[in-house]
Design goal:
The complex is a heterodimer of chains A (about 250) and B (about 425). Chain A is of the alpha/beta class. Chain A is built from 9 helices and 9 strands. Chain A has a domain of about 160 residues: Rossmann fold (3-Layer(aba) Sandwich), CATH 3.40.50.300. In chain A, the strands form 2 sheets. In chain A, strands 5-6-7-3-8-9 form a 6-stranded mixed β-sheet, with helices on both faces. In chain A, strands 2-1-4 form a 3-stranded antiparallel β-sheet, with helices on one face. Chain B folds into 2 domains: about 210 residues, no CATH class; about 170 residues, no CATH class. Chain B contains 16 helices and no strands. With about 425 residues, chain B is mainly α. The two termini of chain B are about 45 Å apart. Chain B is globular. Classes of the chains: A alpha/beta (about 250), B mainly alpha (about 425). The interface between A and B is medium-sized, with 29 and 25 residues.
Chain lengths: ~250, ~425
């Protein structure tokens, strides 16, 4: 099966002389969820910016649905939806108008948009706030708007950065249910989060990023093995602690 | 510590002017001072001719109310307070009186200068009218009203409930208008009695309201609004880093955005239409258009300079509206969604141009309304036609190329 996201030997950062990411390589298949975990400053957001095309790799290549951003920007961008760590809303639009804008931008059929928007507003308990501006929403509600917009676009790839920040328990549950649903429909999800127990439960594979390098990559068993656990032992949290707590002395992989 | 609160105020004022200086020089280079100098000369010419031949039916009272009330009642306050002050400055609330009194003085002096300037213009007109109050006394009362207005505005800011604050402010403007009307028209004792009575009643009203010692949230909100206005104003002349916008729903303009068809190529049009009519940019454009209609009506009604004065007023306001609307090119320039949405930048360019053109045409038509009503009756048809042609040339022929070049330049800078 062709990967939705194919990252090959990507080195990048804000300055060519001082790369933040080093030789990042991984693939993400349809119907798969990968969890990106790492300490603060490990390079998670930089990796996401490179995938989004907001930053250009110094070396290496990123393909989404088989194309690079330079080859076919429209195809590349229409294949992904993004949920940023900090909600980035337009102050002048209401919740419902954000959904309409996303529907228009991603070319969602109007009838389908109406249905999806109504469903999402209900599922995320946002119906009473459909006419509210960003300034009148709590942080959690703003995050919900971001998530609803991503889910409305129904793309093959979701890039989700710290989605649980500020969400109430019902919001977290709704989000996870929807992620399982879109995954079952064949979407690929690339999610960065510090909530390791949730990442462990919902993700199929994991990338442990440390100082911009992948120090572990694979299934839970493979990450635990990289951390020195014997087969069948260890959780993601324990493995992560072992891999990163002493400065990542286990070294890089790949 | 007391010193430190005062020096913080000074540092903030200094920082504001330092940050604004480059934008002010951009504005000066843009030709605005020249246009204003021209407008001022035209106004001065019509003013002196008005003083020479004062019409018998000149509306002395209405002009007095219209000129003096806003300058007496409008009392903005710049405090340079910001969100972080709730954490770092709030513990010093006991010493904030000194900080605020510096702000009150800073704004009060500017307001006083403005009201004296208006008096300077209005008094020569007043003395030719039916007013019985001695001109010097009128100026004295106006200054007293200005000082009391500034004090009243401060008391309103301190009020706990937003509804009371807004309601009492509207009431104050209305009562001030009545007082000014009474002072410039009625017998002096009537005018002065009404004014004194109003002052006493307002004093009692303010005393009865629950108030904060220092209205932190209100002041921070007001400061944010003022700052945004500066940003919107300056962004017409330079690329100003934008902050969060000041939003008003403006339901009466919603039909414009609702008329945009749901399709992918319209996504940016949908966004920019909302950006225009709901942000401070829309507010400024709207106010400018209304002011232009008012000035246009005055100029057209008096047949200023055989109708050509009215034409000059029209072109001036069309140009000013255009300068303001150009700030739309800066909206969402640094938004991450511009890069994430599967839409080419070409569509964004086209959207800005479409929204700009629609808004500009609408404003130009509104500005033309008073001229179209008042000029033909005086036989100034040619002047009206020249107005319409000037707008067509400016909006449909000159404007698109200018906007395109500006956005292309911005794109290259990015």
């Amino acid at each position: 099966m062709n990967p939705v996201l194919d990252v090959q030997r990507v080195t990048g950062g804000y300055s060519p002389r001082k790369p933040v990411l080093h030789e990042l390589s991984f693939t993400l298949a349809p119907g798969e969820m990968i969890g990106l975990i790492g300490l603060n400053g490990a390079g998670k957001s930089t990796a996401i910016k490179h995938i989004l095309g907001l930053m250009q790799p110094h070396t290496g290549e990123i393909r989404i649905q088989g194309t690079t951003l330079a080859e076919d920007p429209e195809r590349y961008r229409s294949a992904l939806a993004y949920v940023p760590e900090t909600p980035l809303l337009f102050d002048e639009l209401t919740v419902e108008e954000h959904l309409r804008l996303t529907g228009m931008a991603y070319g969602v059929d109007q009838a389908r948009y109406e249905q999806l928007a109504t469903d999402l507003l209900g599922e995320f308990y946002m119906k009473p706030k459909r006419g509210a501006f960003a300034a009148h929403l709590s942080k959690g509600m703003r995050q919900k708007v971001m998530i609803m917009n991503a889910l409305l676009a129904r793309p093959p790839l979701y890039i989700i950065d710290e989605p649980f920040l500020g969400l109430d328990p019902l919001g977290i549950r709704s989000l996870l249910d929807k992620l399982v649903e879109v995954k079952r429909e064949g979407a690929a999800i690339f999610m960065s989060s510090h909530i390791l127990s949730t990442v462990e439960t919902y993700c199929d594979r994991f990338i442990v990023l440390h100082h911009g390098r992948m120090i572990a990559y694979g299934t839970l068993a493979e990450v635990c093995a990289a951390a020195g656990f014997r087969e069948g032992e260890g959780s993601l949290e324990e493995a992560f602690y072992r891999l990163t707590a002493d400065g990542g002395s286990n070294g890089t992989i790949g | 510590m007391e010193r430190s609160v005062e020096s913080l105020w000074k540092a903030r004022v200094g920082a504001f002017w330092r940050e604004s200086m480059p934008y002010i020089s951009d504005m000066l280079r843009s030709g605005v001072p020249f246009v204003f100098a021209m407008a001022a000369l035209t106004a001065l010419a019509s003013y002196t001719s008005l003083l020479r031949d004062m019409p018998a039916d000149f509306p002395f009272t209405i002009v007095g109310i219209a000129a003096l009330t806003p300058f007496i009642s409008y009392n903005p306050l710049r405090t340079w307070l910001r969100e972080a002050d709730l954490v770092f400055l709030m513990p010093l609330e006991g010493q904030m009186d000194r900080y605020i009194s510096k702000s009150l003085r800073y704004n009060g002096l500017a307001g006083l200068a403005a009201v004296l300037f208006v008096c300077l213009i209005y008094i020569p007109i007043y003395v030719k009218g039916p007013g019985q109050l001695h001109a010097a006394l009128l100026v004295g009362v106006v200054i007293a009203l200005k000082l009391l207005g500034a004090y009243a505005a401060w008391q309103e800011r301190r009020m706990v409930w937003n509804g009371s604050r807004r309601g009492i402010r509207v009431l104050r403007w209305l009562v001030t208008a009545v007082c000014v009307g009474a002072l410039v028209q009625s017998e002096p004792w009537i005018g002065l009695t009404i004014t004194l009575l109003s002052i006493v009643l307002f004093g009692l009203l303010y005393r009865s309201m629950s108030k904060f010692r220092l209205p932190w949230q209100t002041l921070i909100r007001e400061e944010r609004k003022t700052k945004r206005r500066y940003v919107v104003f300056f962004s017409a002349f330079a690329d100003v880093p934008s902050e969060t916008a000041n939003i008003a729903r403006r339901g009466y303009l919603a039909w414009m955005a609702k008329s945009i068809a749901y399709k992918q190529s319209n996504a940016f049009v949908y966004l920019y239409a909302h950006s225009l009519y709901r942000t401070e940019l829309g507010g400024i454009t709207l106010r400018l258009t209304l002011l232009g209609m008012f000035c246009g009506a005055l100029a057209a009604e008096s047949g200023l300079a055989l109708g050509w004065g009215a034409a000059a007023v029209y072109v001036l306001f069309v140009w000013l509206v255009g300068v303001q609307l150009a700030a739309l090119t800066q909206a969402h320039r640094h938004s991450v969604w511009r890069h994430v949405y599967p839409l080419p930048d070409r569509l964004r360019f086209e959207a800005v141009q479409r929204v700009d053109r629609s808004a500009y045409v609408l404003c130009a038509i509104l500005l033309l309304v008073p001229h179209a009503i008042l000029l033909p009756g005086q036989g100034y048809i040619a002047q009206l036609v020249v107005n319409a042609l000037a707008a067509v040339v400016l909006i449909l022929l000159v404007r698109p190329g200018r906007l395109r070049r500006k956005m292309q330049l911005d794109l290259e800078e990015d």
